[in-house]
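hey so i finally got around to running the thing on that chain from the lab meeting. sorry it took forever, my laptop kept dying and i had to restart like 3 times. anyway pasting the input first so we r on the same page abt which one it is
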Amino acid sequence: MPRHPLEDTVVPAPASDVPASTPDAPATGRVTLVGAGPGDPDLMTRRGLDRLAEADVVVADRLVPHALLRELRAGVRVIDVSKVPRGAFVPQERINEILVEEARAGHRVVRLKGGDSFVFGRGMEEVQACQAAGVPVEVVPGISSSISVPELAGVPVTHRGLTQGFTVVSAHLPPGDPGSTVDWAGVARANTTIVLLMAVQTLPDVTAALIGHGMDPATPAASIENGGTPAQRVLTGRLDEIAEVAAAHRLRPPAITVIGEVAAFARTAHPARAATG
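ok and heres what got predicted. didnt touch it at all, straight out
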């Protein structure tokens, strides 16, 4: 069986029926939400590193740079609350409970997330849970993968003369899904760079919807896998072929797809375009 992403570094999340403290314990600890950035530990903010250096407990997701966890001081507990697509999953409600329990036990808790805690990271839910429990909470912004991963692949999400804006969309639900709130027709007509997160499985449906709503099939596109890590990989193609390219080259999460004229700037060590014509 494949190893769990954080298996060598962390302890599993404690069961909810084994509280770290009694419900009426005073909030003597604190919680800090820290965005770890896109994957390169050198791209972590200074304040984020300071909070990690002070931490007693780190509650980490699967996208955080493992080098940061290996550099923690001795005795720091790291609790794995990964949400692996179609795999291991710690419910958000349980994560909220862990943060409150650990803080009420008097610990300095860092909730470490990939990218930024508030960009599709459910960070505000954790802030609200701490506030409702009377636990002091701080937020340290991280560099969002939605802009930094394209940049690391040589793609500016805006560029004079090409685009005056960018639209960031979570595509974990395909167009037409009852749970999707995205106006894909509006996205297609916006004339901005489109940045897709969580779109590996839904990419064929998304690209078909964009073309169906009037986007030029020849629009440049690029998919970046494992951005900001030594395993970063960039695949390029047109809008009407990028899903085929991604499937042919076994694109895997985490990956970000950029659609728009700026995607033509993508740097590829090994260009992997689908055959055309």
